[in-house]
């Protein structure tokens, strides 16, 4: 079974300190989800205009949150970001080593065995 984590960010101007606190809370939620799926971890931020940034690796959450890509995702959180979502995967189909099989999925990508 997989794990999910998310933070919905309402429309409000926030200080960098508040945005960092939201990122820290999201990270804790992702780490707490690891036991539901230690084989791959992914995260995405979604902006008001629908643009999204996705990072995913075939790593347990405890290692994923230490990656440079994850740090960049959190550093890019600003007043235009409305959602942070994360996924920890326990594979039932498809290799966790193939990022196209891991969540978050992006429309238009094809899953591979």
Give a written overview of the molecule:
The chain is α+β, with helices and mostly antiparallel strands and 113 residues long. It has one domain (3-101): 2-Layer Sandwich (Dna Ligase, domain 1), CATH 3.30.1490. The chain has helices spanning 16-33, 61-64, 68-75; strands spanning 3-8, 40-47, 52-57, 81-89. A four-stranded antiparallel sheet has the order 1-4-2-3, covered by helices on one side. The mean pLDDT is 91.
Q: What is the H/E order?
A: EHEEHHE
Largest β-sheet summary: 4 strands, antiparallel
Q: What is the mean predicted local confidence, pLDDT?
A: 91
Task: Give the domain tally.
Answer: 1
The largest sheet has its strands arranged as: 1-4-2-3
The helix content, as a percent range, equals 25-40%
Please give the CATH architecture. 2-Layer Sandwich
Distance between the termini: 19 Å
Query: What is the fold named in CATH at topology level?
Result: Dna Ligase, domain 1
Nearest-angstrom radius of gyration? 14 Å
Return residue spans where pLDDT drops below 50 for at least 5 consecutive residues.
none
* Global shape: globular
- Name the CATH class: Alpha Beta
Structural class: alpha+beta
Supply the number of helical segments: 3
The percentage of residues in β strands lies in 25-35%
DSSP strand tally: 4
The CATH superfamily is identified as DNA polymerase, Y-family, little finger domain
